[in-house]
Design brief:
mainly alpha, 70% helix, 553 residues
Amino acid sequence: MAQDSEDLVSDYQFWLQKLSVWEQASSKETQQDTCLYLSRFQEFLRRMYEILKEMDSDAILERFPTVGQLLAKTCWNPLILAHDESQKILIWCLCCLMNKVPRTPGESELNSWIRGLLSYVLSAFRFDMKEVGLFTKSLGFEPIDYYPSLLKNMVLSLVSELRESHLNGLNTQSRMAPEHIMSLSQVCVPLVTLPDFEPLVEALLTYHGHEPQEVLSPEFFEAANEAFLSKKIILSTSSVVSLWFRHFPSLEKATLHLFEKLFSSKRNCLRGMECCIKESLLPQAACHPAIFRIVDEMFRSVLLETDGAPEVLAALQVFTLCLAEALEKENKQLKFALKTYFPYGAPSLTAALSQHPEAIPQGHRLQPLLHISQLLREAIEDSTHGSQRGPFESWFLFVHFGGWVDLAMEQLLRKEAEPPAGLLWLLVFYYSPQDGSQQRERSMVALKELLNRLLMLLGSGPLSAVDLQEAAESPSPPICAQLVRCLLLSLLLWTPEGHASAREAITRMVHTDAAAHEIVGFLDQTLFRSDHLCDEASRKLARELLQELQAQV
């Protein structure tokens, strides 16, 4: 990039001088010279655009203070402007100079001036410019006043034409030709970030013709999607949903863009994840099953690639919560059956999981948990022998709804009841889905022994961090370390007896950075779902511990 910039600077003055010479004379020799150098000049413009698009407008004007003069001279040269490729690259370069949000009168004036140049480029060969000049002067307008208005009116006219074409339906005589709409979308590719073009971009995105083939160019979809993701354009939710539904590569890119933000090196809290996910508009778009299935498949791939990383599981669960909220807001009743969202899960299991666990009263939570456990177990045991699709699909469906796991942990810590086998199975399956049935049975026995030991310590007086650590390290056979830590952390946070020794016990648990991050995630999740999990004292302790640990990692 640095070398390209240096080469551009060396050519810059040469072309500025050339343009000045071409501007001052209109002889046959000058025209021949322009045509001779045209291809080289186009290559210069293309290289300049590649550099300008990586800079903001202030940096551009600082490095190339006369760039506006160069581009203006190019705009007013009819031999250059008559070539389609020159027009396209010139428009791209002009767009780089625009300030999306002008902060000073000078920036606003620059934007108006650039819009005037763009208007001229767009309209120069649709009208006889001499006649237009005489007409505007007779009305008392100067070109610098006329062309921005011309651009605005042109956009509004096209928007109106698109809407009328859409409403006319099968009345072919009153409809825009598909090739006209395709050309219009191609013209808009370099202009999607300009504020004056936003109405036209939205009208194109929401236009639905009756043609069997897509009438908008893929390049237009890609440009609109890129502008939306980089926040260079503001689009309505309906137009964004239409964009992703009509162009799945843009949907995939939007989902990857969200993943990059969610799984960055700096850990995102669940509240931050929730805000990021809602801002992406993907939950609103995913109300349509076809879009949901693509986003869900991408989550599945990331889960497999990361071996079920906790942050990916957390993001999937938050996304599912945002989707449920969007469905409730947009549909009082589901337009689509749950089967269309989760085709690989048993309908009864999907229906049971899709309930809101926090809405179930405290004393009535055990029965639905045992029902879910039974349905999951039946789905796995009924799957084809030797096939991993059944168990994995059941687990993948289950992990969308992480609130049930929290409720299962809460129920197991109730001292007045024998731990139900269904809840033991549910937790073992959630944390070790790859285990076979025999290994899962052994883990259930070990988990029950550990739970009884912890509850015995809980009922025998003040809890000792050392005793808790010894109890957590003693299950035989060994069970998933993450499950053990989550059980121990739940005991410390969700029971009044555990609060006194929580700090010391957690300090003993933080052996590695991975363990520290896992505990931070658990505390963050507790606060995210705290309304139905624990009391104010537990929330206060979780908040303090989270702040202390985050300062260390």
